[in-house]
Amino acid sequence: MKNFFSRVTQHRTSRNKTSTTAQIPFRMNFLFIIVGLLFAALIAQLAYLQILHGTQLKAEVSRTDSTVETNNVQRGMIFDSTGRVLVGNKTHQAISYTKGVNVMAPDMYRTANRLGKYLKVPTDSLTRRNRADYFLASSSREKQVDSNIPGIKNAAQSDVNNKELQYLYAHPAAFKLSKQQKNDAMIYARMSGAYSLSTTYIKETGVTGKELAEVGEHLGELPGVKVGTSWTRDYPYGSSLKSILGTVSSEKIGLPDNKVNQYLAQGYSRNDSVGQSYLEQQYEPVLRGSKSQTDVEVSGTKIMKEVKRYGGQKGDNLQLTINAGFQKKLQSLVRQAEGGAGGVSTGTYAVVMNPNNGNIIGMAGVDRNPSTQKITNNALGAINNSITMGSVVKGAMVSGALMDGVITPENSTLTDMPITVGGTKKASWFNKNGGANMAVNASTALEVSSNSYMMQLAMKEAGFHYHEGAALNMNPNIFNKLRGYFNQFGLGVKTGIDLPGETTGLAGSSSRAHLGNALDEAYGNYDAYTTIQVAQYMSTIANGGYRIQPHILSSIRGTSKNGGLGAVKDSVTPTVLNHIDMTSAQRKMVTEGLYDVVHGTNTWKTGGELDTIKPEISAKTGTAQTFYKGTETVTLSLASYAPSTHPQVVVALAMPNLDYNAEDNNMKLAKSIYQAYWDTVQSTSTLKSGTSSSNSSNVQQTAQPQQ
Hints:
By secondary structure, the chain is α+β, with helices and mostly antiparallel strands. It has a domain at 325-682: Beta-lactamase (3-Layer(aba) Sandwich). It has 22 helices and 23 strands. Strands 2, 3, 4, 5, 8, 17 and 18 form a 7-stranded mixed sheet that branches. Strands 11-10-9-22-21-20 form a 6-stranded antiparallel sheet, with helices on both faces. The chain is elongated, with a radius of gyration of 40 Å. It is found in: Cell membrane.
């Protein structure tokens, strides 16, 4: 039995070995078959691609992308009324960088380091983030940083950079940069700020001849780097008008954050220079010009070919109504007047305007800090500083009363006397105690600047019958009535001047508790107005009753072949905002009163010091009792026009918070301004002849009512 089982076992073993040996060739043959089939499929696919689509794929491999690169052009210039340059462009040699397509941080890092060998840039604005980004742009340094951050290998790619920055900020000693590296980091930061195929300046100004030569010599190893030109704003007549002209952002600052989306939608790049304030901002679409366009062919990260499609066009120019020579003198005169003011004077402001078309010929101003005595130029103070002007507004007060019908040209006589209501006495400057009571009509009231007359007009307009000591029981609506007439002349409303930032002035409370202030309102000692409003008000009287919108822009013009003013593309047409509904007899009462302020015969006339000005002027002086930080002060103002017949120019000025005993600072300044005007702007030989003191304006022919 044992032998039997042994033979059976041997037989089974022998059969299993034979079966296994037989399976090996079968499996190998099967694998060979599979591999063969795969090779066949691969060969078939290659044949399919090469034979049927070879041409297409070859073109795809060698394909280049075409795109358009844009570059900035010179900004339009700003000229004065005579064609002199107020704001020009100063050309500088510059080094720029155009970022290619698919350019990565390591590419820019290498270029920045190479360029840094030949170019030195200011590094004062290099930020901590700039330094960190430059440090991490080196792959070896980035690996070194990553080795110190636990778990960074498993972090999402979006979190890696944040973790790296956090580490560097926590270990500032780990990424200290040498002076040369800081220079290179600044270059890298400017390159990084560029978009694909956009151009940014690496160094706009101050490029030395040596730097130009060395960079130019190595341009082949500096992809994207170019030698070109840049422009910065230049002010040949100084910076006294800069607050009006405005400023332009630098390429480094680029678009303002609060308008970035608006500008991007208009085709700007983030690093473009734009007007930041006033005229530069107001007329940005005109001044910016149109960018040049270059067709660029790109293969991979390399720019293969550049062909200029459109050379761009310089921005159009602005010609202003301002006369630069006169403006310079005006600013100097205003500054001199403020310099001699002393005390707690807070500034001086002046506007010179053509009453017939709204042209601003000059606008000047200075602020003064009474604590430090420091004086700073601020021409814009003429449109945004609200000042209690005093009696200068009485021409509007008399006009309103005439239009309201409480007085007429035939019956306007009242007695100047102290006014006592509710236990409070108010009086004219020359008749404080009633010793100089006298009968005055509307014209004489302007000549002597009667406060009493104006208060009586206000009470009449309110329907209040005055008697000495009576309680002032008027309807508070009197405030609205008085202000309504003042507004028609431009007092207490925006004039519409083409500069941002104009204010409306300040109106005091009109509640019943402040009813007594309605009398102060009548003679200009309550509400506050701007100097430009006073100029518009006096222009409205001077031109026969047309409130014209003042403006600084005269025209938009192209550029001539020699770079000067070119053809007129658009011009400003004077705009009449409203017309004062007064008869010629009513207007004559007002204009005669303003003439008599200077040339009248009454002992108490207020502007006699101005009668030496030639040609003759008409005017209204103003004095307001004011306070500055508890100190009693006086504010002097003046509104005037010349010549008294056929007015050509209006001068308005304000001098707030002078010493209380100041008397004629306003008239001294006005005399100097008129002298400068006739010497600089207009010859008296161009004036029309005439002897009447009433105006006959040609504004109807030069302006159209606003629709």
